[in-house]
Amino acid sequence: MREGAVSAQEYMDACLARVREVDGQVQAWAFLDPDHARAQARAADEYRLSGQAIGPLHGVPVGIKDIIDTGDMPTENGSVLHAGRTPSRDAAVVTLLRAAGAVIMGKTVTTEFATRSPGKTRNPHNPEHTPGGSSSGSAAAVGAGMVPLALGSQTTGSTIRPASFCGVWGFKPTHGLIPRPGMFMLSRTCDHVGLFARTVEDLALLAEPLVAFDERDLDTRPRARIPFVEVVGEEPPLPPMFAFVKTPQWRHAADDTKAAFAELVEKLGDRVEEVELFPSASEAWTWHQIISEAEMAVNLELEWEKGRDRLSEHLRARIERGRGVRALDYLRALSRLRPVYGTFREIFEQRYDAILTPAAPGTAPKGLASTGEPVFSTLWTLCGMPAVSVPLMQGENGLPLGVQLVGPRDGDARLLRTARWLVGRVAK
Amino acid sequence: MREGAVSAQEYMDACLARVREVDGQVQAWAFLDPDHARAQARAADEYRLSGQAIGPLHGVPVGIKDIIDTGDMPTENGSVLHAGRTPSRDAAVVTLLRAAGAVIMGKTVTTEFATRSPGKTRNPHNPEHTPGGSSSGSAAAVGAGMVPLALGSQTTGSTIRPASFCGVWGFKPTHGLIPRPGMFMLSRTCDHVGLFARTVEDLALLAEPLVAFDERDLDTRPRARIPFVEVVGEEPPLPPMFAFVKTPQWRHAADDTKAAFAELVEKLGDRVEEVELFPSASEAWTWHQIISEAEMAVNLELEWEKGRDRLSEHLRARIERGRGVRALDYLRALSRLRPVYGTFREIFEQRYDAILTPAAPGTAPKGLASTGEPVFSTLWTLCGMPAVSVPLMQGENGLPLGVQLVGPRDGDARLLRTARWLVGRVAK
């Protein structure tokens, strides 16, 4: 596209054709106006022809999870309470995408307020299975080839799990790397912007312009540009070393997941070692629940006050639990968390380039009532560590199964490079 | 001293002579070993004579509040529970002071865990009156001429109030400007390092080397050096404009305080306007209590578990209240706070260089049972705004009465420059 071999309009037309072909079944979009998408693509082509400098995503369509504000499209946060909501301005990440030249194709389906209650989307590989959630539409749209790139979010496992289920790359960068203003906030401590793409190179292309300091997001900070694209293109100076971590959730892993990992570990030979986490890591699932539910209770307070009868039963229960949390327990969980950061840092500094662990307990469960379990993401999300789901395996049912790699905080670009190395190694 | 006109040893000897003269009555020191102090001064002189580059505080004695860790002296946090505690390393600020050449003279008396229950210190201007607290010893030691500079802390009004009562300059910089690791933590949101000196120029000299990023203190961030000394030495480009703010606490102000402020406002003429705060500001006192007590409950949890019977009744009651705070109320208070920052920023951007308000309701109360009321500091502390107590007035009883100036966050050096201007203007 940069060279003009394919115009933005041709590319968009191909995407829209694919939407017409498969979205009747997949239902990945919460809002998609083909004319508006085409008009943006046309404007991108005209801009390029004018000879002005173009951004790294010039003319590339991106799907945006419907909890991320767009000034030109509705943003309904997956709730009837916000039906018809039309924000007056773009979220920080949408502004960054537009500045990089991207075309905001449409809004993708989210579960209710990015929590558990599912939307209409189905798994592109088998419509009887869930696409995962909460970034259901983003993962499914990329998985079905309707759009090459999409944004989602992750507060527990909302990017890694649907990426695994839909057979695409999913990336949850370090906490605070990508600014969140304009994205519906559930939990300052746990919320992250998530990224979806079909290749790791595309993931790098999408990530690079999104790293920014935003003074409205207290967890971002000024930092040097991270050369994602360049780093991902490099060979690692040494073959990476992996720590295979089963986590205290291993009992939840399906038999075919366990078998697939045994095979992968064997294939990696001396490049992988099984590592058992320090004891306090097993408390992280409780800490995550305390912290995220306490923060959700405040962030959903208005919805609770004005329309709790129109929240799902599941979400009502979580808010109710969150409202009952003592500040003492909340702050204690936060304070216990901090030393864990240091312990993980040591694991990486001493020996390992990435932790290797399942992206989900297994392939996408059958049925649409549940989006599956996020338990294999909770710990890394809580600790703000970068994680990527690599579409590398299949379950016995032929559905995709992701390998999750987790890196040290701020080791995002190297983590993607390691992931690319892994794909090459396993393909051998 | 820089030129060698006075050696560090001569200066220290003069300080120690003053200690012998007045400290029997004032009792500002929790720990002071004259031999150790002299040995440090001697080492400073030897270092200077060796011709090596010297720091901005070379050979200058500094008193350190006894909640700030020193690797070479005990740090007992004002509690029998920590009696005999000897930290293995210096607090971040002590490291910075030593790097700037300062001599750590000794540890100054703090109230119990920097809260309300008083230590042994008396007001240097009248031993029947409180020196204020919680940085009682630091304020009194500087006020009595036993040391030129001292560090304290402020979680509500623990620097500004004792500075006012003891007739010295007290400075509470912007939240996060000076790193806190190694200082006993009560409340991440409200804790600040506080500074004491006899002149504003000395305050600038002390502040400059203390500004630092420390990754262990999540509220600090990398920033350019702040040229405190240079800025304080400059004339303001325009005569500053003051906003006289009575705050919702004005009813607590003593009659002589009210009269002194009326006189000061008249003297400032068209350089001051009375400003009424926006309505939500009046909630800040409640928010401060919720936030600081919830955080104290966690930070004092070990003391509560192991020795609550040896805590003061007052502190036990606060911890008990803090343990009962709901995360919902804690997080709600934090979230309401954020917009207030913006409102204050506008006040300063639009018209005013500093807010002018009492440092305390009146002069130091008689008796040692109470350290006085911090109500005129609460709001600025909670909002992390820089505040300085200027020893400019006297009460009817002849005791000192401070004028508090408050500036916008990160406007620290300019605030001190404005304070210097005020002193010159009032002296005319």
Portion in beta strands of chain A: 5-15%
Strand order of the largest sheet of chain A: 1-3-2-4-6-5-10-11-9-7-8
Q: What can be said about the biggest beta sheet of chain A?
A: 11 strands, mixed
The overall strand count of chain A is 11
Mean pLDDT of chain A: 96
Annotated CATH architecture of the largest domain in chain A: Alpha-Beta Complex
The first-level CATH class of the largest domain in chain A is given as: Alpha Beta
Q: What name goes with the CATH superfamily of the largest domain in chain A?
A: Amidase signature (AS) domain
Look up the CATH topology of the largest domain in chain A: Amidase signature (AS) enzymes
Structural class of chain A: alpha/beta
Number of domains of chain A: 2
Q: How far apart lie the N and C ends of chain A?
A: 31 Å
Uncertain residue segments of chain A:
none
The helix content of chain A, as a percent range, equals 25-40%
Q: List the total number of helices of chain A.
A: 14
Order of helices and strands of chain A: HEHEHEHEHEEHHEHEHHHHEHEEH
- 3D shape of chain A: globular
- Assembly form of the protein: homodimer
Rg of chain A, Cα atoms, Å = 20 Å
| Largest interface: pair, residues per side | A-B, 19 and 19 residues
Structure commentary:
- Two copies of one chain form a homodimer.
- Chain A has 428 residues and is of the alpha/beta class.
- The first copy, chain A, folds into two domains: 8-233, Amidase signature (AS) enzymes, CATH 3.90.1300; 242-427, Amidase signature (AS) enzymes (Alpha-Beta Complex), CATH 3.90.1300.
- Chain A contains 14 helices and eleven strands.
- Chain A has helices at 8-26, 34-49, 92-99, 136-143, 160-166, 200-207, 228-233, 255-268, 284-299, 301-307, 313-324, 327-350, 378-382, 412-427; strands at residues 29-31, 61-65, 103-108, 149-154, 169-172, 192-197, 242-244, 272-274, 354-358, 387-394, 400-406.
- An eleven-stranded mixed sheet of chain A has the order 1-3-2-4-6-5-10-11-9-7-8, sandwiched between helices.
- In chain A, helix 4 (136-143) runs parallel beside helix 5.
- At the A-B interface, helix 9, helix 11 and helix 12 of A face helix 9, helix 11 and helix 12 of B.
